[in-house]
From TrEMBL:
It comes from Peptacetobacter hominis. This is B3/B4 tRNA-binding domain-containing protein. It comes from the Bacteria. One of its GO terms (molecular function) is RNA binding. SMART domains: B3_4. Residues 61-217 form the B3/B4 tRNA-binding domain. Pfam families: B3_4.
């Protein structure tokens, strides 16, 4: 299995990096009260910190908004996932409990102020997933949707084969990428920037690794992908 960032991406986003956490044979049908409580507490704490703040001008959000502009994506219309999550919690200090993996990802995302995506490894095509620009044949099924969409030309995507997992980089995840109680093998990705917030990315990776070890007795595989090392294999 491998996760990659196409080298062309670094022509536009030279400092882009992704932290990767691989989790195998996880029982996601098991509801964990401690994880649900962690998410509730993270939402309340985060909400308190961002009250009265214009998130568009927040220094932690700004790098993502600037990158969206470099990618010719309007950040006001298509918000980065962490900004969308932040705005939601800013309005109301709570998030729904979906399942253990999703709740855990949301909690750690809020605590470290970074975008986190959880992807089902068992749905990978060709044993790989990565970030690249649109190619002919790419298709996307919106979450809860019934009709396929074709992304825009030159759009930055999370893809496996020609199946788009996330459109407009970190904007919207697909129906194909939905994490359910039956999901057992995942790769958790954390988007950031070298020299800007890669410390937050590493802290989120370390926190996830520690939580899986302490709470579930599970080992994880972790790594960082960037312009110097654009492929991570496990």
């Amino acid at each position: 299995m491998k996760f990659f960032i196409d080298k062309e991406v670094f022509r536009v986003l030279p400092d882009y990096c992704v932290g990767v956490v691989v989790v195998s044979e996880f029982d996601n049908a098991n509801k964990v009260d401690e994880i649900a409580k962690m998410l509730d507490e993270a939402a309340v704490e985060f909400s308190e910190k961002v009250q009265g703040i214009n998130l568009k001008e927040d220094s932690r959000i700004e790098p993502y908004r600037n990158s969206f502009r470099l990618l010719n994506i309007n950040p006001n219309k298509f918000m980065c996932s962490i900004e969308a999550l932040a705005k939601r919690v800013q309005k109301k200090p709570e998030l729904p409990h979906i399942n253990t993996l999703v709740d855990l990802g949301n909690a750690v995302s809020l605590k470290n102020f970074v975008p986190i995506g959880v992807h089902n490894v068992d749905k990978f095509e060709g044993n790989s997933m990565g970030v690249r620009f649109f190619e002919k044949g790419d298709h996307f099924l919106p979450m809860g949707g019934t009709e396929m969409e074709e992304p825009d030309e030159k759009e930055l995507l999370y893809v496996s084969g020609n199946t788009v997992k996330t459109r407009r980089w970190t904007w919207r995840q697909s129906e194909d990428g939905k994490i359910s109680e039956d999901t057992r093998n995942v790769v958790i990705v954390i988007d950031g920037f070298r020299g800007v917030n890669d410390d937050n990315v590493r802290e989120a990776m370390d926190e996830l690794r520690g939580l899986f070890k302490e709470m579930f007795g599970m080992s994880t595989i972790t790594g960082m992908v960037d312009s110097e090392n654009n492929v991570f294999e496990w």
